[in-house]
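Renewal narrative, Specific Aim 1. Our central claim is that a sequence can be written position by position from structural information alone. The example that follows is taken directly from our test logs and has not been curated for this report. It begins with the structure tokens describing the chain, in the order in which they were read.
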């Protein structure tokens, strides 16, 4: 695989998302920063990168508009978010439990919750890799970072039902 198979720039179509609080915008920026720091991203049939990706949500699908860094367009890649609902909901619940436990729980309890959190994150990452199969090749760490970003895109306003 060529060494230029990575995302060099990632943008989000804010118009396709629900309104975001400042905390949500910050979570998205951190997730994008982490992804751009190190990633492997190889669209099927593409010999050369790096790539610019624009993410949007349309009809309960995540759409990745992919172009090469020189502006040459690539095919869009999309997949349904329906299979991710349960794992994202469970991930948010366990993250909340983890943050609550940090304040009051014993270290062994915190570690157990964190292991569950990491397990759900890994499950979501594997689902994401499966959703991209035959469309885009990513390594496990890139899949984890993309799942983090997917969760950040789905973070709901405080008090909104999940």
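The sequence written for that structure reads:
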């Amino acid at each position: 695989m060529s060494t230029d198979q990575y995302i060099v720039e990632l943008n989000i179509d804010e118009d396709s998302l629900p309104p975001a609080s400042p905390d949500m915008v910050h979570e998205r920026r951190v997730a994008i920063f982490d992804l751009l720091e190190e990633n492997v991203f190889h669209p099927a049939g593409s010999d050369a990168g790096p790539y610019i990706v624009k993410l949007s949500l349309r009809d309960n699908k995540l759409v990745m508009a992919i172009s090469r860094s020189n502006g040459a367009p690539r095919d869009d890649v999309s997949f349904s978010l329906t299979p991710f609902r349960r794992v994202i909901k469970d991930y948010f619940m366990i993250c909340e439990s983890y943050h609550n436990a940090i304040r009051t729980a014993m270290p062994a309890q915190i570690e157990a919750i964190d292991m569950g959190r990491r397990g759900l994150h890994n499950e979501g990452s594997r689902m994401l890799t499966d959703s991209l199969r035959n469309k885009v090749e990513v390594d496990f760490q890139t899949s984890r970072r993309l799942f983090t970003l997917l969760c950040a895109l789905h973070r709901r306003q405080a008090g909104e039902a999940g």
